[in-house]
């Protein structure tokens, strides 16, 4: 028993500190932390058993749980929301190119008008990943459908042009004046990162919209568990490739945010779980809206791997979150939209200031 408990303690410690190791430096390091929830559960069971048996070894799972306590708050929260207060509402949504289809009884496909739903939210800032613009088709002209009545200003980043008349990428729509805009990176295929500087009352806030490297698993392989089992070797390699690419991208993103002259919000589809180098690279100097103001597990993936929280809103510590929600009733995409509300005036002092 002693050797088993000691081994689990050592493995737990390695896992809990492994989120700080870049997958670029150590192959498959980014996949190891996926076992963190499992080892947390094992340590809780061991602690319970050792308490009942009155063994001094209980100190090892107890210490392991203390080491890994932060992962509990990352996984589950039960914060009170301040819905009464006014604030700046931010919506982030991987919209699946606005082309998601539902099925009626009898397997008949029906198109979902996702544009109407987004407009009805009336959010102050909207970040859309997998944004698709078609200038040739009125029903697919997303810029006009979402911001054509001058309600919103907008900025876009194209990561894939299609004959100059269509493009795929990222977009930010906002009720606030846009003072500046720019992009951080794109891979000329599906992913990228952009930002806008907004005039919000007497302050300027920088908002990032990001879509990091995909998990690289074809959607059809996520349709059922059997598909994942049949392709597990290829899936494992693709997962690792995605982890390494995201590590490179988040390093660029984190450095850019640190150099921002303004308080920042970083939202989007991170394609990575909270037990990851990607997540902790931003969490090391920013707060996460789910952790501060969310409830439940906050799962954001609308497929068979429903237990994934891969969409996030990080924010500067000078902003104060009032509310955070994962809108799981909105199944217009393979992601659920997430929404946060922030108190914006006056900004809180920086924690680095005396």
Automatic annotation (TrEMBL):
GO terms for cellular component: membrane. GO terms for molecular function: endonuclease activity. GO terms for biological process: GPI anchor biosynthetic process. Residues 91-335 form the Endonuclease/exonuclease/phosphatase domain. The keyword Membrane applies. Keywords: Endonuclease, Hydrolase, Membrane, Nuclease, Transmembrane, Transmembrane helix. Signal peptide: none annotated. It comes from the Bacteria. The chain crosses the membrane at residues 31-51, 58-78. CDD domains: EEP-2. PANTHER family: CALCOFLUOR WHITE HYPERSENSITIVE PROTEIN PRECURSOR (PTHR14859), ENDONUCLEASE_EXONUCLEASE_PHOSPHATASE DOMAIN-CONTAINING PROTEIN (PTHR14859:SF15). This is Endonuclease. It comes from Echinicola pacifica.
